[in-house]
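Lab channel / #folding
Pinned by the channel admin:
"Please post every new chain as: sequence first, then the C-alpha cells as a reply. Keep commentary short and put observations after the output so the thread stays searchable."

First post following the new format, from NK:
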Amino acid sequence: MKPVHPLRRFLRHLSSHPWQVKRHFSADALQHIEQAIAASEHLHAGEVRVVIESGLPLSCILQGMSPRQRAIQLFGQLNIWDTEHNNGVLVYLLLADKDVEIVADRGIHQHVREQGWQQICQQMEGMFRSGQFEQGVTHGITAIGQHLATHFPPEATPRNELCNHVLVL
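Reply from TO:
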C-alpha cells in the first residue's frame, strides 16, 4: 500500500461513518458471513470473529494508529485471546484505509505464522478490489478455518466461546 498524506488520511477517517459499511455489506451479506463463521466452527475447535470498521475513532486517528495496531487493540478488547486453546482469530476490516488485518492467538499463530495470515489478507483484498466484499470475507473465513481444522480438530462437544455476530463499528 502506498503512503497516504496524514491530513488526507485524517479527513478520510473523520468523514467515515458506520452506515457506509452498508455500501459494501448488506444485512443479508452480514448474515451470510455469520453463517460462514458458524459453519466453519463446526469443522474445528477454533474461534473466528469478524469486525468491520468504517473509519478509526478520532482518538486513534490523532495517535496515528495503524490498522494493525487497531486490530491488536480490538483483539484484546473483545477478549479474542481468551479462548481455552488460545486459538481465537480476528478478521479486521478497516474500510477507510482499504485494509484487512488478521490477528491470531498464539495457539494457532505458531502454526500459521505471519506469512500465512498475510497471504489470506492479500487474497481478501484482491477480492475486495473486484467488488466481491461478502465473498472476500467468506473466503478468508474458509481459509482460516482450514488452518484451524488442521491444528484444532472439532471437539466431541462443540462450544462457541466467541460471538459469531459481525461487529460493525
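NK: The mean pLDDT is 94.
TO: also worth noting, Residues 6-154+162-168 form a domain with the Diaminopimelate Epimerase; Chain A, domain 1 fold (CATH 3.10.310.50).
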